[in-house]
């Protein structure tokens, strides 16, 4: 049931991102029949209505003068004081064709008009917030239903009273650095997105302004801890999360999550944990890349090159998005980075909610692995039997080092 909202969010986002990145349609193939021809290229009532409804408008008539020549070479329309008319000047500014000189330095300084931001704002306050809220709410609802039907997954066998070291202190530190910073980033990100609509009516504008400013500062600085934690888990656990044949057996019975007494073989990480790990790696790297682009505005553009690579694969055309634009203004790069950052964050949060559930109230004994680092021996045998055998073989080959210790 989670697949539909996720696909809906991503597909809607890609369509909105295309509209944000390309606010001009292809030139009309039947320019002679263009209703603007009779008015010298003036905006029609249909154009105004489509723009008000947030629909794409054919702006190709603005890109050329009535003669069909580019604005820079077309015969100017004289104003009462001579020179170019205001409409010509604004047209050149809007489509970044004016010869602009500014005292400010930077990639975005010469772009004075960039109206694709309205498409970004509508996507942010519309599909992004709506589908994102449904995704998180739906995930929580499914977990609640699963808990009511399945209950807490208990240790089936008799507890031994002995524990096995599951994770070292370094592993637990890397995990909690990554997990704790992600929770903080998720909460502050939600405040930034939903704060105006949810918190201002409750706390007022002044209180929310203080909270929003603090959230932004925390979000920007905790991001470095998140990226450090991501590097740590990649270094520590990548080799343990390489898929193997035992994962197929685990997936065949869904890890015993829906059946009591079913315990498929698994090593240090089972197939479900491996999916969480690789999800964290892929989504973590993606959200870090877009986050760095936002932390250093206009310095790390990435979407123009990404769109060019995607166009070469033919994937955008196959899903109905057409050819993605590769000539993007600096502001458009930032808008796309923010939109993508939020999309990945929602999918990431939905996945982590399921992980938190199973690692806490969903499964008996699971939290001990990242709490104290030691787990009940019977729990380890049921959920990671092959790993327990490996630990016992290592203990036999290294006399004096016991694989299990009495529980306190």
From TrEMBL:
Cofactor: heme
Keyword terms: Cell membrane, Electron transport, Heme, Iron, Membrane, Metal-binding, Signal, Transmembrane, Transmembrane helix, Transport
Protein name (record): Formate dehydrogenase subunit gamma
Compartment(s) where it occurs, according to its Swiss-Prot or TrEMBL record: Cell membrane
Transmembrane segments: 128-149, 176-202, 222-239, 275-296, 339-358
Keyword Nucleotidyltransferase: no
Coiled-coil parts of chain: none
Source organism, top-level taxon: Bacteria
Segments of this protein annotated with the region Disordered: 61-81
Family matches, as Gene3D superfamilies: Transmembrane di-heme cytochromes, Chain C
Membrane topology: Multi-pass membrane protein
Pfam families attached to this UniProt entry: Ni_hydr_CYTB
GO MF annotations in UniProt: electron transfer activity; formate dehydrogenase (NAD+) activity; formate dehydrogenase (quinone) activity; metal ion binding
Cytochrome b561 bacterial/Ni-hydrogenase domain segment(s): 166-370
Example GO BP: anaerobic respiration
Signal peptide: 1-21
Residue ranges with Low complexity bias: 64-76
Family under the similarity heading: Belongs to the formate dehydrogenase gamma subunit family.
Cellular component per GO, a single term: plasma membrane
Primary localization: membrane
InterPro entries in UniProt: Cyt_b561_bac/Ni-Hgenase, Di-haem_cyt_TM, FDH_cytochrome_b556_subunit, Formate_DH_gsu
